[in-house]
């Protein structure tokens, strides 16, 4: 594929026609940090907005090694081969953001799914801060939808803020738990459980089958103590094995049941609307921070104020007020 940019019309036509090479280039454009690319990307996203929104967006999170990628591949193959769906797989990966590398691992792990013509796999962008990566992932979801994918799966590691952001990108948030990992019912994972729409105990196979069933029962009890995210939807706890395939079809039926439950009332639309507003404010925050950090008056006072804060001569609040005053000129 030649380098260089297409026109907005050419990107939009290629994306709409389902041309994967154009879709991939459009995503690269959306992820670009260059100001001229960003302006073009904004136009493209606006152009395709009306074609987007039609997929079922599912977030998949869980601790490192919980089996997210393996489950996504197995579930993706089920969706593509048995149910005739078109599946896009995206990732928001804070560790790759930190290291500046890309998650090659996931691409190689999902080799079988990657070969399916009805699947599209895009690893996490390797540049930028987490908020930016998540914002771009949101736009990538829209591009995939405009390209005809009707299921979008987003993988993220549940170790920090990334799962909070991914929860704001998806309709259904799937949390994976390992049996016997020592974190059951200890409250460590409370924050993540509050985000869950469905809980799956993974690797329920072989020697681990009984432990997984026990964990399922324990989590089912624990979930009763968590404030429900949507009234009328109590979080199901299921077991899955990506090795034997047990529970995967049932898991997908549960995802579809969640969709129907939300769509039978105002919850589905209300959630998407609240997400739009959430991303409006993330975009404003990011742009304000960019302008603030580049502002000459701020740059001029920053070293002196940071030094004063570091040495304890000035409180952080006081210094912040001075820098903000320098920024706004008041
Ligand atoms: N027995 C068994 N092993 C599994 C299953 N799913 C995944 N594994 C193994 O668990 C390990 C981690 O799986 P991954 O799918 O890479 O886990 P992940 O959550 O994506 O990990 P990170 O992306 O590194 O956070 C791999 O060695 C898998 O082969 C399963 O259902 N059963
Ligand atoms: Mg993974």
From TrEMBL:
The AAA+ ATPase domain, residue ranges: 54-227
Keyword terms of this UniProt record: Hydrolase
Record bears the keyword S-adenosyl-L-methionine: no
Molecular function in Gene Ontology: hydrolase activity
Enzyme Commission number(s) of this protein: 3.6.5.-
Family to which this protein belongs: Belongs to the SIMIBI class G3E GTPase family. ArgK/MeaB subfamily.
Name this protein carries in UniProt: Methylmalonyl Co-A mutase-associated GTPase MeaB
């Amino acid at each position: 594929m030649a380098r260089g940019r297409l026109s907005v019309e050419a990107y939009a036509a290629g994306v709409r026609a389902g041309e994967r090479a154009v879709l991939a280039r459009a995503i690269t454009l959306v992820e670009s940090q260059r100001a001229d690319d960003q302006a073009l990307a904004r136009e493209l996203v606006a152009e395709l907005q009306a074609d987007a929104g039609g997929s079922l967006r599912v977030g998949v999170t869980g601790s490192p090694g919980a089996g997210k990628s393996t489950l996504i591949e197995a579930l993706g193959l089920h969706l593509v081969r048995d149910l005739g769906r078109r599946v896009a797989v995206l990732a928001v990966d804070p560790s790759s953001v930190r290291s500046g590398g890309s998650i090659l691992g996931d691409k190689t792990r999902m080799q079988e799914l990657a070969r399916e013509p009805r699947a599209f796999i895009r690893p996490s962008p390797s540049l930028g801060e987490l908020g930016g990566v998540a914002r771009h992932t949101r736009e990538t979801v829209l591009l995939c939808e405009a390209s005809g994918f009707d299921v979008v799966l987003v993988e993220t590691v549940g170790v920090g803020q990334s799962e909070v952001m991914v929860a704001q990108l998806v309709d259904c948030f799937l949390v994976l738990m390992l049996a016997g990992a020592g974190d059951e019912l200890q409250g460590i994972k409370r924050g993540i459980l509050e985000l869950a729409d469905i809980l799956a105990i993974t690797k329920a196979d072989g020697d681990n089958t009984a432990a997984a069933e026990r964990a399922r029962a324990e989590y089912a009890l624990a979930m009763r103590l968590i404030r429900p995210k949507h009234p009328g939807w109590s979080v199901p706890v299921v077991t899955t094995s990506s090795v034997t395939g047990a529970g995967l079809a049932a898991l997908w039926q549960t995802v579809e049941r969640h969709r129907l439950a939300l769509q039978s009332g105002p919850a589905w639309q209300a959630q998407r609307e609240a997400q739009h507003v959430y991303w409006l404010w993330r975009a404003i925050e990011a742009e304000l921070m960019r302008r603030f950090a580049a502002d000459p008056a701020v740059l001029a006072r920053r070293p002196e104020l940071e030094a004063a804060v570091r040495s304890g001569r000035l409180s952080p609040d006081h210094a912040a007020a001075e820098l903000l005053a320098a920024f706004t000129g008041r």
